[in-house]
Amino acid sequence: MSTGTETATGAGTEPVRTEPPAARVRALRKEFGRVTAVDGIDLDVPAGSVFGMLGPNGSGKTTLIRMLLGLSRPTSGTVELLGRPVPAGLSAALPDVGALVEGPGFHPFLSGRENLRRAADLEPRLSAHETGPAVDAALDRVGLADAAGRRYRGYSLGMKQRLGLAAALLVPRRLVVLDEPTNGLDPAGTREIRAIVAELRAAGATVLLSSHLLSEVEAVCTHVAVLKQGTLLAAGELGQLLDAVAGGWEIATTDVDRALRVLRETGATARADGAGVLVEDGPEGPVLFAALVRADVRVHGLRRQRPDLETLFTRITET
């Protein structure tokens, strides 16, 4: 039985198989009294993506994640998790989902290993003889092997985050949901989380994470969604979103003066910049390049000036 959607591509060709989204919401709304935390959101989380959910405090990120996982009921709208409706299909979907939401909750007087063993005992896909090795592997993966015997109450915030992540990774998952996973971590710990996210994606898992660290999201995410005051402002593939607000053109040339003269004749606004010229406004790149070539200006490179995620986020949230 097919688990994806088949699209015909023409006579004599194989059909293209597309996997359904790892998570999907439609017209999703959540109200707390007179406060609307999530306001009519439509969103797909593509399977196999690293999906970053961005937004200021109070934008609805955690509320949305909680509804995806069945931890909170929506006021209206629909939710699907791994192709199954929420909440009806949660029992079938959740064994394939690992989650760290709003900080981990463990027993303070038990050690990290003891807490993780209790979590492992609840995993339906771990047999009794597999529990110990799975716990040790998860502790090692998040860098807690040496601190596994210490009581949880003595853990730092970053260590608590690591233990929560270990619980989410006790068995292979199709979807891993991480709410502010680098909270309390030092730069080395943040790099380790980045490596784990990359490993998960390479293994075929989908990773959904929320974060206020835009540089980290830009480093690991393939897709992003930007929320503000419960509404979805933008969502899509990260590169396409950045291209949509791209700036001018960077042109590498040793003949700066002639290049400026030719470019300005095309109607471009240009200035000398570093090892070449920066075109801030005017015709598209192919037109600029053709004009320079006709004028025998040596061009060593032409590149679209792409903004970083912080610039994109600022433009979207401040409009």
From TrEMBL:
Keyword Cytoplasm included in the entry's annotation: no
Annotated PROSITE patterns: ABC_TRANSPORTER_1 (PS00211), ABC_TRANSPORTER_2 (PS50893)
Protein keywords: ATP-binding, Nucleotide-binding, Transport
Residue segments, region Disordered: 1-21
Keyword RNA-binding in record: no
UniProt record similarity statement: Belongs to the ABC transporter superfamily.
Entry protein name: ABC-2 type transport system ATP-binding protein
Lineage of producing organism: Bacteria, Bacillati, Actinomycetota, Actinomycetes, Pseudonocardiales
